[in-house]
Design brief:
mainly alpha; two-stranded antiparallel sheet; 2% strand; mRNA binding; Luc7-rel; coiled coil
Length: 302
């Protein structure tokens, strides 16, 4: 709860909200509060915020376009390991959604096989009602604990107030799990009672969709935050893979040019050696001819 409030304040007022005038100072891209993922591409927690796959707040409060530009134009770009770690996280999330797609497709095949049998809607109604009642009980307990925390806090009993808040947080997680289970029950009921409405699985985010649904509903799905988040992940992976391949090709070309330069130097050196040898042979020949001419002159004088 405290971390949540601190994160909200950081986003609204900046991470240096508690600094006195003149204490702020300039922040560089390697500051510990800067989101490394944002420097490379985009922040994953921000992309999934308020979706059913919400992964919480980003632990790094600073997401600044100017810092991103400064990093990507610096000579340290690609040398700090940010790209490798980010690429691994993207791949993990992409693989997770691929597994979800396969799982939902298998469920769809199973439910289609069951569609010919009589499945009573009362079973799902009872399950949903049971889950709703459990959530209401948890909700009342959470409200009671939060009231208790306020009272203890007002009386100065900090430890007791924190204990009550922790218990409320634990019950909140249970409440969220029950809501998730209720949503699953509703999804299964919709699938089984759809009649002639055929379902399909979105190949980007893994959600169930109606085949031949109204275009407005399809557009709503495609513009939804969850679908866009997984689209961005795939596009970012493709972009980074392409950049790696281009860098690899560039290095291979540079190595090829270096090899050509070395080969040319060897050829030039060999040619120079050959020219030196030719000069040496010419010099030796001239010396021999000179000695021979001198010898003949001596013979004539005799």
């Amino acid at each position: 709860m405290t971390d949540y409030m601190a994160q909200m304040l950081n986003e609204l007022m900046g991470p240096q909200r508690n600094s006195l005038p003149g204490e702020g100072g300039a922040i560089d891209f390697d500051h510990p509060d800067v989101c490394r993922d944002f420097l490379v591409g985009f922040c994953l927690p921000e992309a999934f915020r308020n979706t059913k796959n919400d992964i919480g707040f980003c632990p790094y409060p600073i997401h600044d376009e100017a810092l991103k530009k400064r990093y990507q134009e610096s000579n340290r770009f690609g040398r700090l390991g940010y790209e490798e770690k980010y690429f691994d996280r993207l791949n993990r999330m992409h693989n997770e959604v691929r597994r979800k797609i396969e799982k939902n497709e298998a469920r769809l095949v199973h439910t289609r096989g069951m569609s010919d049998t009589h499945v009573s809607a009362e079973v799902y109604d009872r399950k949903k009602q049971d889950l709703i009642e459990k959530r209401e009980i948890l909700g009342r307990r959470i409200e009671g604990l939060m009231e208790e925390a306020e009272i203890e806090g007002a009386q100065g009993n900090v430890a007791a107030a924190q204990t009550a808040v922790q218990k409320a947080d634990e019950l909140t997680k249970e409440e969220e799990a029950l809501e998730h289970e209720r949503q699953r029950a509703m999804t299964m009921e919709e699938q089984l009672t759809a009649g002639n409405k055929q379902m399909q699985v979105c190949q980007v985010c893994g959600c169930f969709m109606l085949t031949n649904d109204a275009q407005s509903r399809i557009d709503d799905h495609l513009s939804g935050k969850l679908h866009i988040a997984y689209t961005r992940i795939k596009e970012q992976i493709d972009l980074m893979v392409k950049a790696k391949e281009e860098k690899k090709m560039m290095l291979e070309k540079e190595r090829g040019r270096d090899k050509d330069d070395k080969d040319k130097k060897h050829v030039d050196r060999d040619r120079k050696d050959d020219r030196d040898k030719d000069r040496e042979r010419d010099r030796d020949r001239k010396e021999r001819d000179t000695r021979r001419d001198r010898s003949r002159d001596k013979d004539r004088r005799r």
